[in-house]
Design a protein that fits this description.
CATH superfamily of the largest domain: Glycosidases
CATH class of the largest domain: Alpha Beta
Structural class: alpha/beta
CATH architecture of the largest domain: Alpha-Beta Barrel
Helix content: 25-40%
Strand order of the largest sheet: 13-12-11-5-2-1-15-14
Radius of gyration: 23 Å
Shape: elongated
Largest sheet: 8 strands, parallel
Length: 440
């Protein structure tokens, strides 16, 4: 497997939070419903948007929100059956759309059978070493034992990933996901909490089953290269640049996002993440919708233009392609809603063009990064790869701006608004405009 090439590095992702998307009840009521088949009605929309990979937040049997798993091999009863989800995966694959599932391997729910066995049998349970347990204490739930929860959340029971039986249990489930559903990758929940040896073994195991299998880790802070490397993960969530994407526009300070990009992806050898392909997003199931956090709605197209033009793998969160709104302070369910059907507007069409540009241009997938033009309210990002040069230009001001710089070319195709751009005499950026110029 070439570590410098993977289908994931050229993908445009679409994220769905299935329990919310399908309007499932928050508590697992045990009543079987075939809600996951709703994805079939959205498949054409996802494909037409230019997305060629879907990342599903948790789909397996859980207590409530999906991250407190009960059964790694059973689709959540509230969503349907394993056969239903296989039908969804097969339909997406027929449209050339890859499938990535949330792998919640750091912890399980209190309804996990092996944990219930420990609560019942205590020392006599054969699963007592599957968790981090002390029989000298007690839990918030008065179980007669203490156990480690994830970051103090005791509805999330931390697994002992140093126990070979636990690893075998998880890997057996992963094998099933690959062989039955045909999945193409896993997004690892709280990857920063996972044991490094576990990640290395998971990489070897999955590549043995499917050589181009793609592993993405949820990372927030720290040096991402500790996790993203040839031995462990292919990619990780780019939270480091997430804030800059919106706050650069809210403060009208394009230096913030551009300096973040230059410091991490610039051409200098010391740049931390040179050559790394991180999953980039304007919002997701855990944060305020981008349309709600931006001060000026007219900046929405510009944010997405930078998202698709910066190094990394762009990911669209369902509903945000038409500007759906929700604030984190409204609670997680507000961020994870049900929409009857996909909507279309000018933003949707722009994202469609950006997605196709990203998939057409190797420079946007693999190119290095320079910033030849940068002011408080304008920036032009340059991406080069194997003789292809692309410029990503935005003007956040309500006034026109003419950029003077050496493009190295005379003309370019404008992949956002169409037509030919002439660099001669300066490049005019209309107010609140965005462009992707592929030089020719």
């Amino acid at each position: 497997m070439d570590n410098n090439r993977n289908w994931g590095y050229e993908a445009v992702f679409y994220q769905i939070y299935p329990l919310g998307f399908c309007d499932a009840p928050f508590e697992n009521d045990g009543i079987p419903e075939h809600r996951i088949l709703k994805v079939l009605d959205w498949a054409d929309h996802i494909a037409s948007l230019g997305c060629n990979a879907v990342y599903f937040s948790p789909v397996f049997e859980s207590d409530t929100h999906g991250y407190n798993t009960r059964d790694f091999k059973r689709i959540d009863t509230r969503l349907g059956t394993n056969e239903d989800f296989k039908q969804v995966c097969d339909a997406l694959h027929k449209k050339g759309i890859r499938v990535v599932l949330d792998g919640v391997f750091n912890h399980v729910g209190r309804g996990f059978p092996q944990f219930r066995d420990v609560c019942e049998k205590k020392w006599d349970s054969p699963f007592k070493d599957w968790f981090h347990i002390s029989f000298d204490g007690n839990s918030n739930y008065n179980d007669g034992l203490w156990y480690e929860g994830w970051e103090g959340h005791y509805d999330l029971v931390k697994l002992n990933l140093r126990n070979p039986a636990v690893v075998d249990h998880i890997f057996d489930a992963v094998r099933y996901w690959i062989e039955y559903f045909g999945i193409d990758g896993i997004r690892l929940d709280v990857a920063y909490s996972l044991d490094f040896d576990f990640l290395k073994n998971l990489r070897r195991f999955t590549e043995g089953l499917k050589p181009d299998f793609f592993l993405i880790g949820e990372l927030l802070h720290g040096d991402y290269s500790r996790w993203v490397n040839p031995e462990m993960l292919h990619s990780a969530t780019n939270y480091e640049c997430y804030k800059g994407l919106y706050s650069s526009f809210n403060s009208m300070n394009m230096f913030e996002i551009c300096h973040s990009l230059k410091n991490r992806f610039g051409p200098e050898q010391w740049c931390q993440y040179r050559g790394m392909h991180l999953l980039c997003f304007a919002d997701n199931h855990d944060v305020t919708r981008i349309a709600s956090i931006l001060s000026n709605p007219a900046h929405l197209p510009l944010v997405y233009t930078i998202l698709f033009g910066m190094p990394g793998i762009p990911c669209i969160y369902y509903g945000s392609e038409w500007g759906a709104q929700a604030h984190k302070n409204q609670g997680d369910p507000a961020l994870r809603p049900c929409f009857d059907k996909p909507e279309e507007n000018d933003l949707t069409e722009l994202i469609r063009r950006l997605a196709h540009a990203h998939r057409e241009c190797k420079a946007l997938c693999y190119g290095d990064l320079k910033v030849p033009v940068l002011t408080n309210q304008q920036c032009i990002i340059q991406r080069d790869c194997d003789g292809e040069r692309v410029f990503v230009a935005v003007n956040a001001s309500d006034q026109p701006y003419t950029a003077h710089f050496d493009a190295g070319y005379g003309l370019a195709d404008d992949l956002v608004i169409g037509g030919t751009h002439d660099f001669g005499g300066g490049s005019l950026l209309e107010p609140l405009s965005c462009h992707i110029w592929r030089c020719k």
